[in-house]
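Input.
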Amino acid sequence: MIATTLDIDAVAAFLGAADLRSFTRAAEALGTTQSLVSTRVKRLEEVLGRALLQRHPRLVKLTAEGERFVPAARDLLAAHERARAAFSEAREQVAIGISEQAVGADAPALLARLSRHDPTLVINLTIDRSTLLEAAFERGELDVAVTRRIGGGRVGETLRRDDFGWFAAPALIRDPNAPLPLVSLMSECGLRRHAVAALGRAGIAWREAFIGGGMAAVLAAVEGGLGVSPLAARIAPVGAVDVGEAWGLPALGSSEVVLRSHVATPRANAFVRELAAAFRAGERR
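Output.
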């Protein structure tokens, strides 16, 4: 028999593990321990009489019953947050900036996570280039900045390290007698400058095949076979291949996704933990 009352903390633990595909990441987001998240989910499954999650060594997946439960669980948690904030005097606002090169094609899923975290928290989101976001953070215009950093640095919390590659559509064939067709963000992009400098050192001629238009346009240009693009492997288009070695292109190394924050309130800090856990979860892609 299913109990008439569900533990809100257990429901939150379940959703965290389901969204982040990891008990460890869910614990980071919720500010608790991995063992407590696992215990809460297990108790919730016992109360419901259903297996909600499949446990694998490096990955957590929803069962069919878990998939069915997710929408109701989200509604319950959202209603709980609204009830808890019923007598709040003011809605708290957080200005956050996220680099295009850090989020890539994961932007829709990430935005959905942000909006679900705390319905009473007003989030002002900017997605732009890392250099612009860093400057805005320094001016105090952003409370939180998630950027991509090429090269070393001590400022901020490293959330993830990503390898770079030269990505192109599988059908694209390089003409050895023609300049390399380059697809990239606008000239101010740090990764573009890094890639162009590497080509220059290697003595490889290149031409502008596509530039600007935002990350979505860059990924579409790669998928459409317009040229090759320097990208972090985890944000490259699905189906694109790293042609760097086959085409004799210079290695681009790796970079870090870095979080900077000066939020101070418990609600904002909880949001930042959730955001950081979401980016760390991307390490397994």
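DSSP finds ten helices and eleven strands in the chain.
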